[in-house]
Fold this protein.
Amino acid sequence: MRAPPLFHVYVAATVLLAPFAAWSEIRKLRRQGVSALRAHEKMGHASQPRSGAGHLIWFHAASVGESLSVLALIAKMGEMLPRAHFLITSGTPTSAKLVADRMPPRTVHQFAPLDARGPLSRFLGHWRPAAAIFVESELWPRMLRMTRDRGTPMALVNARLSAKSRAAWASKPALAAYVLDVFDLILTQNDEMAQAMVAMHAPVDRVARGTNLKAMSSPLPTDPAVLAQVRTAIKARPIWVAASTHKGEEATVLAAHKALLEDIPDLLLILVPRHPDRSDEVAALISDHGLSHATRSQQALPTAEDAVYLADTLGELGNWYTLTDFAFLGGSLLPIGGHNPFEVVQAEAAVLSGPHVTSFAETYSDMTEMGAAEIVDDAPALAKAAGRLLKDPAHATASLTAADQFVRGKSDELGSIAARLIHMLKLEDDIR
């Protein structure tokens, strides 16, 4: 396919802007504590050697959510391709740290090179990927075309573009067709996005509905030492968790907790705000509700007098989900879009959520139908649903069984996606 004029304009712009972008990106990474060696990965200078054995499969994601969403897929493909190695690229220090903490076997992380010829030539020349898999909406024109020009099989997985991005690409149909033509396979999150990709001039015979990979994420890490400390502190107290709550949601959660305390006076709520920098604000709100609390960031553990444990730290959600049989997920009582319920059920817990779950609509639909999740609208409904899970053992067991079945089904689905990618990207040589 011939490059449209707009692509040549883009290439010319990258030539002019690349030096300024390089200076800005490297400076930004250095300010965030990234070493000079690693920061220069943005210029295509690899900080690690390429393994010489087996194929190297490159996954490119944007930031934290996209990076974490593919770790389970990398792990599954690694099981099926025991001689293959994997490279994951992303753009932020936070994503690099979280990926490093959960790195699948035979996988390395690098910061993504700038979308310019020099950095991309160095990057591709060093890593020589046998296949490239891009995640969600990472459609950098030069990166895609230069990778394809090397003859590299390519796929787009978990494809999802916002309405604004779709409109922008739709206004440039020739460029959209030229960019999307690089992919041998495009797997979307749902039917609506599959139709949108076709409307953007993606090759219709290469577009298929996949699934939301964030609903198949790797288990959250846990810390046995932390779990032992907290379990010793809380003893046999019943627990529930409210996680990833946003401003305007904690009041509902605390009202529900006060109602639950009337019947279960020793009940402990582990409250995990989505943004730990709101800790003082949330602590004041807890006090306003007449409840005592201990604060995790102050190295405190809950005492028998504390009704709430304010878990205002990052990276510890796996611990809190492990301690409970169910969790309420925030970002859902307000039109935010919800947060990942699969992380909860992977920890062998059921899910309660508000109604605003557009980011995980298909996942919640399946989970509520199976009985692994329940949708609530307000504090009385939350208290009622939580109370039933706490006081009705048969109902709690049924919910946990449904959660387990959901996890098993998603594991099978992940295997099917991995097998499809291996076939479409011609990677069968590395199968056992």
About this structure: The chain has a mean pLDDT of 92. DSSP finds 18 helices and 14 strands in the chain.
